[in-house]
Design a protein that fits this description.
The complex is a heterodimer of chains A (351) and B (626). Chain A contains twelve helices and 13 strands. Chain A is an alpha/beta fold. Chain A has one domain (23-321): Thiamin diphosphate (ThDP)-binding fold, Pyr/PP domains (Rossmann fold, 3-Layer(aba) Sandwich), CATH 3.40.50.970. In chain A, the strands form three sheets. Chain A has an eight-stranded mixed sheet, sandwiched between helices. In chain A, strands 10-12-11 form a three-stranded antiparallel sheet. In chain A, strand 7 (184-189), helix 7 and strand 8 (209-215) form a beta-alpha-beta unit. With 626 residues, chain B is α/β, with parallel strands linked by helices. Among the domains of chain B are: 113-218 and 368-432, FAD/NAD(P)-binding domain (3-Layer(bba) Sandwich), CATH 3.50.50.60; 220-364, 3-Layer(bba) Sandwich (FAD/NAD(P)-binding domain). Chain B has a five-stranded parallel sheet with strand order 3-2-1-4-16, covered by helices on one side. A five-stranded parallel sheet of chain B has the order 6-14-7-8-9. In chain B, strands 10, 11, 12 and 13 form a four-stranded antiparallel sheet that branches. Chain B is globular and about 85 Å long. The two termini of chain B are 49 Å apart. Classes of the chains: A alpha/beta (351), B alpha/beta (626).
Amino acid sequence: MTYLAKPKLHHPALARNALGLTRRDYEGAISTLCAGCGHDSISAALIQACFELGIAPHRVAKLSGIGCSSKTPTYFLGNSHGFNSVHGRMPSVLTGAALANRDLIYIGVSGDGDSASIGLGQFAHALRRGVDMVYIVENNGVYGLTKGQFSATADKGSKSKRGAVNHDEPIDLVVLALALGASFVARSFSGDKAQLVPLLKAALCHKGAAFLDVVSPCVAFNNHPGSTKSYDYVREHNEAVNRLDFMPERDPIAVDLEPGSVRDVVLHDGGTLRLRKLDGDYDPSDRVRAMAYLEAHRAAGEVVTGLLYADPGARDLHEALETVAAPLNSLGDADLVPGSAALDAINASLR
Amino acid sequence: MNPTDIKRPDYFHKVVDCQWACPAHTQVPEYIRLIAAGRYGDAYLVNWRSNVFPGILGRTCDRPCEPACRRARVEEGSPEHRRNAAKPEPVAICRLKRVAADYKDDIRPRLPQRASARNGKRVALIGAGPASLTVARDLAPLGYECVVFDADALAGGMMRTQIPKFRLPDRVIDEEVGYVLDLGIEFRPGVRIDSLRALMAGAIGGRFDAVFVGSGAPRGRDLDIPGRREAAAHVHIGIDWLASVSFGHTTRIGRRVVVLGGGNTAMDCCRSSRRLGGEDVQVVVRSGFDEMKASPWEKEDAQHEGIPIHNFLVPLAFVHDGGTLTGVRFEKVRPVHDARGRRQLVPTGEPPVEFACDDVLVAIGQENAFPWIERDLEVAFDDRGMPVVDRQTMASTHPAVFFGGDAAFGPKNIIWAVAHGHEAAISIDLACRGEPLSNRPPPHVNLVSQKMGIHEWSYDNAIHADRRYRVPLREVTAALKDIRTEVELGFDPRLAYAEAERCLNCDVETVFSDRLCIECDACVDVCPMDCITFTANGDEADLRTRLSAPAANLAQDLYVSAPVRTGRVMVKDEDVCLHCGLCAERCPTGAWDMQKFLIDAAHAADRLHPPRSVPAAAEAGAMAAD
């Protein structure tokens, strides 16, 4: 951690986005996490993604649970809404918030402990309901706040800092998210912003439940030989299936790539995901084959990253519930309490 | 690019913009930290070692350090600057130097002692100005017998005769010239050297092993236009008039005064006139306001005293009535740039304008004059009448004759004279010991970590947002009453502290170790100025375009590491680094460290009295032991 506030001075040539804001305007308080924590890089990637998309900070709600990861919303988007909820209960609080005000952009920030252990049930139901959100798990495979016990995502056979070997099967949140019906699923690495920032931008523009598993090394407790979530291990075993360029609707699409190597996916708002294939066989629109691919590579000790599955036509919770277009929190008493005559009419329709 | 060799002293020296820009390479951030710590005596000695006249320079220096100061560049990126278009300004380095001089305790016991024995060599120094005094200061502790000749009664040269007392009081000159002369230097006042041949033949003061010419640029340029001869009684040459005022020979001037010229001498002339009865004083300059040679702050000071500055007027004639000056006539001109971008002044065709006045001061430049150096002495002169002098060694073509200050390359300023003096002293010492002048001693360099704890540094790394503080001035009417009343009051310790905190500590360097880096990006993410990038290597022009922020300032270097584990290189643009140390604080492995870089330019006296390598740290240690 650092005691100094980050100086307000910035580079004289710092770029501005469509709103006239600089990247620095998307920062939060200075991080109190350990120096070198992968989570800080994820915060920086979120700052970059929101800056590049020109999102107005006050249109974003950040929700989190408990843990190192769940502290991070303090460190980005200082002018956004925030809610630091109970351990593992972020998905429920987020679901409630999203129902009450569908106009905000929801970012759920969680960790492997918060989502894969105490909050596994909450995780599952928020995804299967299709809440319109970006659900990020900052996954370091270890309980950093309690000094380095294995978490539920630690790989079987990986070693703790003190040398103990993990004998439990890991929970692969990506495979779980695919099985549960998340409509945008990706995995990335905190140490690769070139991959992570476009994925975050695409996820922020995706309508429906977007899930990102971001491997984020814990420098204090899980960055040693024998760990499968260290900077070195992930760099050596990173199997990226594609590279993503995200192009918002207004940007013209330049075609300068050799045919066959590129696949464009048009999102509901007109934005385009351009995928450069790195593995010729990988098809991010085939959920079943994606799951098989992930299992096969996990068995080989590889960390598959990239955009793993996207369904641009997905429906979200509001569509399923047929809620009104106006946010519920903006409705007045007259709309919310229509009176006994309306109740009688409903009752009559059920007779 | 190849990995940056940070062992090369120049690399980090260049990052310390102020010190690099200072001709005498004064350790600016070091003394500013000492001022902030209230250690004025220590701050004074850091200055004294490099620039010899801290109290004088703290009032009069041309401050090449300030335009170079990184603070102005980084303030361009402040949110305040964005909102108010506030002018980014450098640290008030020069006026902080004065604080060290004003508030120090008695530093005499800490100055070098007189040499206990002479080494048998004698050096003659011609002119008792800053250049000669610097040479004498550097040589005397080695045992040289230094004899300083000057036509005036007191030592100090132009510092005493040309700089008005309201800018530089005599007591400051007396004190600092005294420190030098007290080293056992013989001063021969009232001796004008009229023949170098006679001096070298031993006819004046005996035989000398070396001669240093520090006689300045003593001749003010005249303006030969109609009326000059007729109105001579009321047309004065600026520097001669200033000297006459300084000696007290001149105590009055006419009510209406026109000063011709746009340099610092013109500013001194007009402000002096205001104090000697000049009520209607005007400065008239050929060129435009921004192109004037005077320092911006000197122009400001003149205007503050109600002196208008008129530009683009070329003098045509002195107007007189039977020998009594009545005014000066000017032609209006405008600047025109020719195809090669050179500016020319072209008459506008408007009728001439006349400024009525009782006296004119001509301050349009100074010239060197060496009528006293015989041209057959092996001291070669070029076709402009200037001696042929080596820019590094200050040697003339005669093996025993050296030049420095304004005498060497024409009018410059005090700090350049000091820098010349240091180099000349090294050369004279080498020459007297029979060594080639190329055997110059290297600078003393020290690079040491400032880490005190996990997040503690031995310097104040917080960045203060304050804008530059103004130096308090004496109220104008009071200031104009007496020509010997100093106008600037100087910073008090509280203001000095606040201004000192604006310094970015550019001498505390970010030092990177590629072997320790795990590429976690923490430094890249936290750097407030986007200085750091990890990327594929390339040539410099290419790399400069591919960084987190484009590195457009070509005067500032890129710090490039050897490849890190992924084969990329770390590239840091030094341009707008705040030296806040956040990269090192956020680095989990210590791949970044903040290390204080102290470079001490070599001085002749170091041969026997080497400098303490880390004065501040050594004393901090001693204090802790108490």
